[in-house]
Write a structure and sequence with these properties.
The complex is a heterodimer.
Chain A: H1 2-27, H2 44-51, H3 53-86, H4 92-104, H5 107-121, H6 127-151, H7 155-163, H8 168-196, H9 200-205, H10 213-218, H11 228-254
Helix pairs in contact in A: 2-11, 3-6, 3-8, 4-6, 6-8, 7-8, 8-11
Chain B: H1 2-19, H2 24-37, E1 47-52, H3 59-69, E2 72-77, H4 81-90, E3 98-99, H5 103-111, E4 115-116, E5 146-158, E6 182-184, H6 188-198, H7 208-221, E7 225-228, H8 234-239, E8 244-248, H9 249-258, E9 262-265, E10 272-278, E11 280-281, H10 287-298, H11 300-310, H12 317-322, H13 325-328, H14 337-342, E12 344-345, H15 353-364
Parallel strand pairs in B: 1-2, 1-3, 6-7, 6-8, 10-12
Antiparallel strand pairs in B: 4-11, 5-8, 5-9, 5-10
Helix pairs in contact in B: 1-4, 6-7, 7-15
The chains are: A mainly alpha, B alpha/beta.
Amino acid sequence: MAPIFRWGFMGLVLTLIYIPILVLVVNSFNASKYGIKWGGFTFKWYEKFWNNDGLMTAALNSLTVSIVAASVATVIGTLAAVALHRYQFKGKALLSSMVFVSMLTPEIVMAISLLIVFMALGIKLGFISLVIGHITFCLPFVIVAVYSRLKGFDMKMLEAARDLGASESSIFWKIILPLALPAIASGWLLSFTLSLDDVIVSAFVTGPGYEILPLKVYSMVRVGVSPEVNAISTILLVVSLVLVVISQLLLREDK
Amino acid sequence: MKKWLALAAALLISGCSDKSETQAPAETTAATPAATEAPAPATGPQKVVIYNWTEYIPAAVLEQFTKETGIEVEYATYESNEAMYAKIKLMEGKGYDIAVPSTFYVEKMRKEGLIQPIKKDLLANYGNLDANMMNKPYDPNNDFSVPYLWGATSIAINNKDVDASKITKWADLWKPEYAGKLMIMDDVRDNFYVGLRVAGFQNNSTSEDEIKAAYEKLKALWPSIKVINSDSPKTPLIQGNVSIGAIWNGEAYMAQQEMEDLQYIYPEEGAVLWVDSFVIPKGAANVENAHKFIDFMLRAESAKAAIEELGYAAPNTAGIALLDEALRNNKTVFPAAEDIAKGSFHQDLGDTVLVYEKYWELLKAGQ
């Protein structure tokens, strides 16, 4: 009985998650515009997307911003998590609770405060402001992911390393980093996803010269979302899948 | 909800900036040197920055504009009027040369000094505009806005499921036989327009009692509603999930291309009318180019291209004359004069929106 329930339940969850995605992928090859019935197989939407300069640029911009923001957030976030874990300093409790607060802050509040800061500092809205904004909201997620992994460590390992004469930097590179790698990778992926589909913060901190995909898609409501969006989503899905597979492979080699 | 938050935040901040108004002169003098430097980039490529909905201007028209004038178009997008307003407010009208607010957002931005007067003498094609869509309450005399496209929110039905002759007014939607077949827009003002009209009041009411009465009306309708959709309201109709829906006429026109059985009805109490207009924010850097662009959009050919591609009407008499007869006589896109006369626009109601919002949240929470 038990295995039936287990598989049945797992199957149900997976179906719920993947059916909509599957429909979207299938529809991206559907010649019928509204996807009500199957109108024949076509690459037409991919072609249209390919020829739609605005959407292409926006998609590439989105990928650039997400990769840069996720990478920077991961580096800063990992270092911050290590600091929070290893060292005692004044205001540590305050700092770690503030990380949680910033995760819970409504996005719109963060968006508007960022815009005000950029305006006050005279930073031109565009790529730079967008990346800074995205790093800001990704950072706490990386810190939390890496920090909880570090918390599960046996601290004696680090003490033993120090006993044997390892320097601080070799402790970091040879012990902490390899052990935290899965969490760092998942922090990166999480940041990448958050950044890639963010609308609210991006709407406020981007400038006219730098358009990104989610904003463009959201803004299509006035004229109706076109099937090209199915095509873009499928491409982005493939990109994300490739990234996940790569990260899994990298982690496996480390074992 | 998200839209609402953006608006609330902007209101909050505008409250703060009002207090700091005394500092404003200092800022303007500080800004003057920058302003005098501004013509310097004119030696580089000329540009105009447009803040608009995605693909709300045909790409071919934009290309033609750049080809003729050498002015590059930078096109930025927003996903709601609230977001556009909030951003322009926060940036003090700088950064964008043209924005395209709907109906009463023109009024709101005008009252708050976020937009600048239009120099009509720079617009050679101004005469193409249809006088019926000018001088509306949100901008008497059209000193600050030039209408681009207009449309209506009204009733679309599927002829196969519903007898069109039985629906002539909004109140008909309350009939029990339509229970579970209705779709409405996710828009507080549009829905309260219907509620107020059916309850026998004017649509831009500021009286809490009337709004409450409209709320009671809508509450009675609530169990009949199957779908609330503003993202792509034509889809549930085409897919057959609902038989009756309050949708934009442009959406209905596009749906008609897919399904012949879709009929669009302008009810007796009047449809919600809206106009999307070009405005020039106060701090625009390329005012002259903005005028050139607006003038280009007023050309008959540009208006024709916009109507054909987007399915909304441009109030451009010369452009309409160029359309083929079937489209020109399409009552969905171009409602009859008496239907236009019955309809009305949303107005800026200041803080009363909070009352509407309160009752809208109650409705959505099912109370």
